[in-house]
From TrEMBL, chains A, B:
Its main location: cytoplasm. The record marks 117 as: Important for catalytic activity and substrate specificity. It comes from Zhenhengia yiwuensis. This is Pyrophosphate--fructose 6-phosphate 1-phosphotransferase. Gene3D superfamilies: 3.40.50.450, Phosphofructokinase domain.
C-alpha cells in the first residue's frame, strides 16, 4: 500500500463560491481512483505550508454527505494566502522546506486551486521539481470570480458570482422602479481589469426590465461626459436609470475612474471612493436628481445560498479531472473547461501547459462590447447564459444555510 | 351585484420582500370572500392616486399561479410613495379629490400596506371619513424590514430581511476567516432608530462561528473608545473580528456616529450613510491592521431569492385577515401578529386601533441588549429564531428568479 504515496491540496487567492466544490471534486477523484494513501490539505495555501500548517483530509471527508456539504460551502475550507513564491535562485531555502516536506511525507502530487497568481506557484514548483529531477506532479485547478484565466472557456466560481450579480440586479430593479421620481442607481461590481462579472449583470434583463440600462467594463475607455449623456438619453425613456459598472473602469489614458474622487469623513480622514461612489457624486452635481450607488462587495464572491448548480457541478467535475491528469503523469498543467457545444450546452475538461496561463489575464474581447462602450453584445449573452443555470439545493438549519465547520481557520492557535 | 361595491389597495414606504405577499393575501381574501366587485390598486400609493394613477387588479390576478408569483416578488408591485398627507384642515382639497374618487368608484374599503408613516395616512383618511360620516373602511396592513411597529409581535418583511442578514453574515464569516492575518470586518445593517435587523445578525452564529463577535444597536449609546477596547479584547481570542452595526448608532448625546448626516427626507428623517465606513476609518488609525466595511444596502430589503417562508406565509395570512377585518366593519385599525406560542411557534392575527400605532416606533427593549451594549441576549434570539425559518421555493428561468412583470412602474407615460 505504501507504494501509492500521498498527495496534498492547497487553495489560494480570493474566495469564490465554487472553490470548495473543486476541493470536493479532487477528494472524490482521489477516493474513486484509490491512487493515494493519504490526502493532506495545506492550511492557508503554500504560505501556510511553509509555516507547517496542514490537515489530514482523508480522515475528515470520507462520506458522500461530508463531500456534498463541502461542495456548497463558500470561500476556502483550507484557508487562503496571497503569497508570491520568490524565484528559487533568490530563495532556495523556501524550496528546500517545501520539497523536504513533500519528500518526507511521500507526496506524489500537489493540487493547487487558484487564479492567475496561484498558477504562478504551480509554474515555480513544477520548474523546481523538473530542474531537480524530482518525481512529483504539480497540477493547477482554476478558480476565480473574475473569469480572467486564459485557455479555459470559463472559470469555476464565475457562474455563481454571475448568478448572484444577475439576480441581485433584477431585485435592485424591483427596488428602484417603485418611486415616481427620477433616479439613477449605480451598481459597482468586482473586476479590476476584466469585465466578465459586470457583463453578467445583463443576464438580469427580462421581458419587463431592461436593467442595467448601461454597462461599463474596464476593457472600453470610460468618459465621464459620455456617461452623463448616456444617462440623460435613457432618462428620456424611463424615470429610473440603472447602471452596472466595473470597479476597474478607466479613462482613455488608463487611469482608474475611482482614483479621481475622495471624500472626507467626520474625522477628517480622506476616503478613497469606489468607482460607483465616484460616479454617484459626479452625477448628483450634473443631474440634480436622486442618485445612489450600491457596492456588491464581498457578497458577490461568497453567496453560496444562490450558487449556480452548473458552476458547482462543473467545479466538482474539474476537480476530479485534475486527479485523472495527475494519474496520467501530467505535471505543470492546469485543467481547463472546453465548451464542446452551446446548444445543448456541454463542456469537457482538457489540460493545458501552465506557462500559457500563469500571470496572464483573459479580458473581454472588444467585439463583445457594443461600439459605444456602454453595453455588451448578444454574443456575450450567448456565452454567459448557460453558466448561471440551475440552483443549488441548499440545506437550511435554524434558518441559515448549512456549511462546513471552519473552526480550524479562525482559532488563534495554529494547528500543526 | 353592484351592492357589493369595490375596494382599493395601496402600498407605501420603503420596500420589503413580503409586501407583495400581503398584497397577494388581500387579493386572496377578496376572492375567497367574494365581497367586492372590483379591486383597484393605487399606483405609487396615495400620492399616485391623487394624480389619478390606479390599476384594476381583479383582472390581473385571478389565477392561483399569478397570486403565488406576486407573493414572492420583491418590493412594491403597485409602486410606492413617501408622501405625508397634510391635515385635512390645511388641505381640504386633497381629501375632496380622494373621497370623490372613492365615492364615484363605489369604494367601500381602502387597504393601505405600509409602515409608521403610511399608517399616518390610515389615521387621516379614517378621521376624515368619520368626521364626514362617510361609510368607508380604512384598514392598515403592516410592513417594514425595521420591525418597529407597535402592537404587532413583528412586521411582515422583517423575517426575510433578517434571514438575508443572517445568511450573508455567515457567508461573510467564511469569506473573512480564510487569511492568516488579523482583520476586522464591519457590516453595516439598516435601522435608523430600531436595531431589530442588526440584532438578527446574531442568528448567523453556528457551532463553528461566533460572527458577529460584536453587535451595536441604536438603542444603546455607542462609545468609540469602548468600541476599540471591545475589538482589541476579541482580537486576543481570534485573528478575524466581525462586527455588526446599525446604520443609526448614536453617541450618548444622541448624535449619529455616521460620517454624513446632512440630507433630510420628506418626513424630516436625516438621511444616513456610512456608520460602517466611519468606524472602518477610525479603527484603521487605532489598530493598524486590515479593516474593511460592508454595507448590505438595498439588498437586505429586496433579496426575495432568500425570503423566509415563515415571513411570506404569514404576510399572505395577515393580508387575508385584513379583508376579514374590513368585512366585520372595522375601520381605523391595523392588523397585527399576536404570538400565541413560541414552542411550537404559532401566531394569530388580531387588529388594533391605528392611533396606537401610527407615527410610533417600537425599539429594541434595553433588557434584550447585554449590559455592555455590544451584543444581544438569549431572549432576543428566542424571539427572532422562528421568524427566519424555511425557504421560499423560488422558480428560476434563464438562471434568475421569476418575478411579476412591473412594466407599469417604470414607463415614462403614466397609466390612468
Amino acid at each position: 500500500m505504501l507504494s501509492k504515496g500521498n498527495c496534498i491540496i492547497g487553495q489560494s487567492g480570493g474566495p469564490t463560491v465554487a472553490i470548495n466544490a473543486s476541493l470536493s471534486g479532487v477528494l472524490q477523484g482521489i477516493i474513486e481512483s484509490d491512487a493515494y494513501n493519504s490526502v493532506y490539505g495545506m492550511v492557508h495555501g503554500i504560505e501556510g505550508l511553509l509555516q507547517g500548517s496542514y490537515l489530514n483530509l482523508s480522515e475528515q471527508f470520507k462520506t458522500k454527505e461530508s463531500l456534498d456539504k463541502l461542495a456548497i460551502t463558500p470561500s476556502m475550507y483550507l484557508g487562503s494566502c496571497r503569497f508570491k513564491l520568490p524565484h528559487y535562485e533568490v530563495a532556495p531555502e523556501i524550496y528546500e522546506i517545501l520539497f523536504n516536506f513533500f519528500t518526507s511525507n511521500d507526496i506524489r502530487t500537489v493540487f493547487y486551486i487558484g487564479g492567475n497568481d496561484s498558477m504562478d506557484t504551480v509554474v515555480k514548483l513544477s520548474s523546481y521539481a523538473k530542474a531537480n529531477n524530482l518525481s512529483i506532479n504539480i497540477i493547477g485547478v482554476p478558480k476565480t470570480i473574475d473569469n480572467d484565466l486564459p485557455m479555459t472557456d470559463h472559470t469555476p466560481g464565475f457562474g455563481s458570482a454571475a448568478k448572484f450579480v444577475a439576480t441581485t440586479m433584477l431585485e435592485i430593479a424591483h427596488d428602484t422602479y417603485i418611486y415616481n421620481i427620477p433616479s439613477v442607481t449605480i451598481v459597482e461590481i468586482m473586476g479590476r481589469n476584466a469585465g466578465w462579472l459586470t457583463a453578467s449583470s445583463a443576464l438580469a434583463r427580462t421581458s419587463y426590465s431592461n436593467a442595467p440600462d448601461l454597462i461599463y467594463l474596464p476593457e472600453a475607455p470610460f468618459c465621464l461626459d459620455s456617461f452623463v449623456e448616456d444617462v440623460k438619453r435613457i432618462q428620456k425613456q424611463r424615470k429610473n436609470v440603472i447602471v452596472a459598472v466595473s470597479e476597474g473602469i478607466k479613462d482613455k489614458d488608463g487611469n482608474y475612474i475611482s482614483a479621481t474622487s475622495t471624500a472626507v469623513d467626520a474625522f477628517g480622514h480622506k476616503q478613497l471612493c469606489g468607482a460607483g461612489k465616484t460616479l454617484e457624486n459626479y452625477l448628483k452635481d450634473k443631474l440634480g436628481c436622486k442618485v445612489r450607488s450600491v457596492e456588491l462587495n464581498v457578497l458577490q464572491r461568497s453567496a453560496s445560498h444562490i450558487a449556480s448548480k452548473t458552476d458547482i457541478d462543473e467545479s466538482i467535475m474539474i476537480g476530479k479531472a485534475a486527479v485523472k491528469s495527475a494519474l496520467e503523469g501530467k505535471t505543470a498543467q492546469m485543467v481547463c473547461y472546453h465548451r464542446m457545444s452551446n446548444d445543448p450546452y456541454y463542456v469537457d475538461v482538457v489540460s493545458h501547459a501552465i506557462e500559457d496561463i500563469a500571470n496572464k489575464e483573459k479580458v473581454v474581447p472588444r467585439m463583445w462590447i457594443n461600439e459605444a462602450g456602454n453595453d455588451v453584445t448578444e454574443d456575450m449573452l450567448t456565452y454567459l447564459r448557460p453558466l448561471i443555470e440551475g440552483e443549488t439545493v441548499m440545506g437550511y438549519a435554524n434558518g441559515v444555510p448549512v456549511y462546513c465547520d471552519i473552526t480550524h481557520l479562525h482559532t488563534k492557535t495554529e494547528q500543526k
